[in-house]
Specification:
- The chain has about 90 residues and is α+β, with helices and mostly antiparallel strands.
- The protein has a domain of about 45 residues.
- It is built from one helix and three strands; from the N terminus they run βββα.
- The protein has a three-stranded antiparallel beta sheet with strand order 1-2-3.
Length: about 90
């Protein structure tokens, strides 16, 4: 369940896919299988919740840490960049 996916991390054929604001919410819940972490991601158009056992939560956290470590600190916006003119004076 929590193994790294062998498919691309996003559907590049989806024309509606774009960066957007998102919220991450975590909470502990009791399920018939025992305590789980409810991890919810909310955007303007979607809400997704997964219920993770402790070991699964550890694997997800490590995968996020590894992914974050691979990111560049340089932020390059997509699309054309408009540079404002220098101040007059």
């Amino acid at each position: 369940m929590t193994q790294p996916a062998l498919v691309p991390p996003m559907d590049q054929a989806n024309a509606l896919l774009a960066p957007t604001d998102a919220q991450l919410a975590l909470g502990m819940v009791q399920t018939p299988q025992g305590q789980r972490m409810a991890l919810t991601i909310r955007t303007a158009s979607t809400t997704m919740t997964v219920f993770l056992a402790r070991d699964d939560a550890d694997v997800w956290a490590e995968n996020i840490r590894v992914g974050a470590g691979q990111m560049s600190r340089l932020i390059v916006p997509s699309g054309p960049v408009r540079v404002p003119p220098p101040p007059a004076g």
